[in-house]
């Protein structure tokens, strides 16, 4: 076809033990938004790294506007007109916006001219940004604007976006989409990577679906249902979690005007957070990353103790207690980062089980570990939560992200807590495993436990939570029943669009 | 005690001499740390520079040649550190400590035949007009060339980091090697160059001790100057200007306490001797305690091993 911008032909890349991409071929046309869909580990990242020149393919070829395209490094890709907005931002916290932009350009102009260009582009596309701000002080949405402007200043023919919306509020997503549609109308092609199906249906012209490194299907997203695309991604059908009818019981956890200073230079202070969590209820806290989620988890788990009288469990003040005392009264937490925070990477699953369940499951007696019981408990978790592992002796880091996530959540759920706080329970987990984890949380609530789910996945919170609150700059919004909330209202609760204007879309 | 024995003009002049070795070592280490590498081998590289510079100067009769060779020796030694930590991914702290031990041992081996000998030293410059100024002329403008070279390096490092693209890339590499790699910058190459610059500066600083300040070779003559240089970099919040302040403060108090002892101050000699270390660190801690522009200035990837996984 004459209007193909980039043609991928039989791209193959193998790493020791795994074939990341196996004979992948597809075309991206001029001025289209092309979606690349797939589960974590399906090979999306490796594929775009090949296009961006970070990884060399073992086999296969690429053709850009009819000419062979073999970028040996990112600067070659940038010169050929390929730009990329990274998923985990490729920004430098301690440097200012203009310096960050300059680092991503081949031949940056003088600092004064660059600052002027940044202002011009940011106004044209409705992405306000001050070139002299330090990036470490920006919100996630603003950081993404830095990345996008860095790309736009180079006038790309193809813009690669790797999961751009995972850190944005719904309003920010809308504005990003306006910007992308404007770019498309100006003839820029966009390769859009995501696993959020509704977004892809709203935005993209074509979709290519990868599974286990192979291209399994192509479709036109606007004519396909989200469920059909999800099943193409996963390769099988799976059940959606079902909540059981329940009536909330007595209040188990009360947080009373919790205020704490930020833990580090780029942390968020907590400001007057108050809420009550009742038995049998699932409370969901949403919000853009970096608005106090991690800090709230630290305070609730007891890693940072707060002022007296701020955290009450079943009528007793636990504010000054550490994690061990809180676990003893049935108040468990599962933090977000599974390698390094929720689990010790180099220790076996049994050892990791002892670390949090030692007291409650009586795996420790007079200071000695009962390895038999510990191993039994770990096996129990593995069986109940379908953790795929050769055995309990395996080091935590050897498990895939989704399997380890099932283990760290399962380890807490299996201890039958009265109160369970989880942060990002299904982050980086494939759809089927995510459904299993959500079901386990709902079952636990049905047995009378009180559950707080902190997550950036709004769909997840809508699915399992009874009441919803949003964290914004360390403050908690009023709590609202999920049943009568619209996605727009949630966006406003999350702090709206952080002083963004809607892009002026060219007619 | 007779304070009138202390001549303020000579005092300021000797402060500049006393501070120069530490200033050189510290500004070099600052560049290394800005690129995200923690090289604890400064002491070893300094003393290697001191002995090599001395040997070359005494055998050729040219102190400038001695300085040049000392810089090369420091760079070569640091290159070993660079190869081990950047290519073989060894632990930076352990490797740096090892480098110090190697430098100390190597220098006493090489320097044994030269102990107690005297060498030619650098001539004092006679700058037209400036050197003839009353008071300031003797204080500031009648030193050897290396004093001005060291100040020039400080200005050059400041300008390099602040105003050049290469300096920006170096800071970016120290700030987030993952991001820099994702943008296609050569993290290991940048760090190797920074490590070698740091080694060369430490070598120059060591040679200044054995060729100008003392000037002769004695075993272990750096006596912890390399460690003070390391401390100054941290407490100076990785800023060239503050490194200069810290080094001159340390040099100043060292000279002042020696003068006080010479003037007959009898009590607390031990306290006087430790005062340069205490006061320098105290002052720099106070400067860097301001949260907004203090210790948070540390390069985010300082001391972390980089390995491109992709």
Key phrases:
heterodimer; A: alpha/beta; Rossmann fold; 2 domains; 16 helices; 23 strands; B: about 300 residues; mainly alpha; ABC transporter involved in vitamin B12 uptake, BtuC; 12 helices
Percent of sequence in beta strands of chain A: 15-25%
In round numbers, the mean pLDDT of chain A is 84
Look at the structure and name the CATH superfamily of the largest domain in chain A. P-loop containing nucleotide triphosphate hydrolases
- Domain count of chain B, please report it: 1
Strands, helices and their partners?
The complex is a heterodimer of chains A (507) and B (310).
Chain A: E1 4-15, E2 18-29, E3 33-37, H1 44-51, E4 59-64, E5 67-68, H2 74-79, E6 82-85, H3 97-103, H4 111-124, H5 140-152, E7 158-162, H6 170-185, E8 189-194, H7 197-203, E9 206-211, E10 214-219, H8 226-234, E11 251-260, E12 270-278, E13 282-286, H9 293-301, E14 311-313, E15 316-317, H10 323-328, E16 331-334, H11 349-357, E17 364-365, E18 368-369, H12 371-384, H13 401-413, E19 419-423, H14 431-446, E20 450-454, H15 458-464, E21 467-472, E22 475-476, E23 480-481, H16 487-493
Chain B: H1 8-34, H2 42-60, H3 63-87, H4 92-111, H5 136-140, H6 145-163, H7 165-175, H8 177-182, H9 187-213, H10 225-235, H11 240-262, H12 269-288
Helix pairs in contact in B: 1-6, 1-9, 1-10, 1-11, 2-3, 2-4, 2-9, 2-10, 3-4, 3-9, 6-7, 10-11, 10-12, 11-12
Give an account of the 3D structure.
The complex is a heterodimer of chains A (507) and B (310). Chain A has 507 residues and is of the alpha/beta class. Chain A is built from 16 helices and 23 strands. In chain A, helix 11 (349-357) runs parallel beside helix 13 (401-413) and helix 13 (401-413) packs parallel to helix 14 (431-446). Chain A starts with a strand and ends in a 14-residue tail after the last helix. The radius of gyration of chain A is 24 Å and the shape is globular. In chain A, the strands form five sheets. In chain A, strands 13, 16, 19, 20, 21, 22 and 23 form a seven-stranded mixed beta sheet that branches. Chain A has a six-stranded mixed beta sheet with strand order 6-7-8-3-9-10, with helices on both faces. Chain A has helices spanning 44-51, 74-79, 97-103, 111-124, 140-152, 170-185, 197-203, 226-234, 293-301, 323-328, 349-357, 371-384, 401-413, 431-446, 458-464, 487-493, and strands spanning 4-15, 18-29, 33-37, 59-64, 67-68, 82-85, 158-162, 189-194, 206-211, 214-219, 251-260, 270-278, 282-286, 311-313, 316-317, 331-334, 364-365, 368-369, 419-423, 450-454, 467-472, 475-476, 480-481. In chain A, a hairpin with a 2-residue loop joins strand 1 and strand 2 (18-29). Chain A folds into two domains: 4-234, P-loop containing nucleotide triphosphate hydrolases (Rossmann fold), CATH 3.40.50; 251-349 and 401-493, Rossmann fold, CATH 3.40.50.300. With 310 residues, chain B is mostly helical. Chain B has a single domain, classed as ABC transporter involved in vitamin B12 uptake, BtuC (Orthogonal Bundle), CATH 1.10.3470. Chain B has helices at 8-34, 42-60, 63-87, 92-111, 136-140, 145-163, 165-175, 177-182, 187-213, 225-235, 240-262, 269-288. In chain B, helix 2 crosses helix 10 and helix 10 crosses helix 11 (240-262). Chain B is globular. The termini of chain B are far apart. The model of chain B has no long low-confidence stretch (mean pLDDT 88). At the A-B interface, helix 3 of A face helix 7 and helix 8 of B.
